Amino acid sequence: MGKTPRTDTSREEALRGWNKILGLWRACDNAACRRGRACRGNVRACSPRNFALAPEGVQAWFASLVVAKEDGVSFDEMMEGLRGTPAEEAFFDWHADDDRIVRSD
């Protein structure tokens, strides 16, 4: 059974959202993505490549989120658990020039 266009669209929107949160546009070779500070291309093709180019700590930050979700841990609890870790530092360093990310110390 094939996927419905709505499901595909929802997944693509979710990927675009995570690309923006993770700042993967910084690693993209598409100038339109870097200018727009968001994925402007084929998000399904670019996400794995750009994620692999992100700093290891940013990858660890996201992996922690995925594991926490699988373990039934809330987002807030996961964020609290990451406070002061190298993964959190790497995430904020990666976003250092991004005025939309505000650390809650």
Shape: globular
Distance between the termini: 48 Å
The helicity comes to 55-70%
Radius of gyration: 15 Å
User: What is the structural class?
Assistant: mainly alpha
Whole-number mean pLDDT: 87
Number of helices, counting only DSSP H or I runs of 4 residues or more: 6
Which residue ranges are poorly predicted, with pLDDT under 50 across at least 5 consecutive positions? none
The largest β sheet comes out as: none
Quaternary structure: single chain
How many domains make up the coordinates? 2
Order of helices and strands: HHHHHH
Q: Tally of extended strands?
A: 0
| Strand fraction | under 5%
Task: Write up what this structure looks like.
By secondary structure, the chain is an all-alpha fold. The chain folds into 2 domains: 1-53, no CATH class; 55-96, no CATH class. It is 64% helix and 0% strand. The protein is built from 6 helices and no strands. The protein has helices spanning 5-22, 31-36, 43-53, 56-70, 75-82, 86-94. α1 (5-22) runs parallel beside α3 (43-53) and α4 packs across α6. It is globular, with a radius of gyration of 15 Å. The termini are far apart. The mean pLDDT is 87.
